[in-house]
């Protein structure tokens, strides 16, 4: 059986590869979204909810933890811890409201820019 010359096969392979590349590029371009708008509205809502709940919980944990520690050292359980939880709740609410105002301000300024 006669052997094929590599020089005669090379242009055919090159043309086949170019054709394959062209077809793959066309398929990939058709699959890509035209514009990436960033996170979806659902993702933004979850991010906001987690951020706000974290602000409140952080205040509760810090206030309760400090109160518990002082109670252990002073032997006044559970009174300082309860006071610490109350102060932590107020501080957490303050942080939550401040963050909510900041998010609302960013949302409103973003609407004006568009």
Give a short synopsis of this structure:
It contains 3 helices and no strands.
Can you describe what's shown?
- The protein is an all-alpha fold and 114 residues long.
- It has helices at residues 6-31, 41-74, 79-113.
- The chain is elongated, with a radius of gyration of 32 Å.
- It is 83% helix and 0% strand.
- Helix 2 runs antiparallel to helix 3 (79-113).
- Annotation, overall tally of beta strands: 0
Structural class: mainly alpha
Overall geometric form = elongated
Q: How far do the termini sit from each other?
A: 72 Å
Sequence-ordered SSE layout with sheet pairings:
Elements: H1 6-31, H2 41-74, H3 79-113
What distinguishing features does this structure have?
114 residues; mainly alpha; 3 helices; 83% helix; elongated
């Amino acid at each position: 059986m006669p052997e094929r010359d590599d020089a005669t096969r090379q242009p055919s392979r090159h043309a086949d590869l170019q054709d394959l590349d062209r077809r793959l590029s066309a398929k990939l371009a058709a699959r890509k979204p035209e514009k990436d708008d960033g996170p979806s509205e659902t993702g933004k809502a979850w991010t906001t909810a987690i951020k706000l709940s974290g602000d409140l919980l952080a205040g509760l944990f810090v206030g309760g933890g400090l109160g518990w520690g002082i109670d252990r050292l002073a032997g006044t359980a559970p009174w300082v811890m309860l006071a610490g939880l109350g102060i932590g709740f107020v501080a957490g609410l303050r942080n939550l409201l401040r963050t909510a105002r900041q998010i609302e301000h960013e949302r409103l300024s973003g609407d004006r820019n568009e």
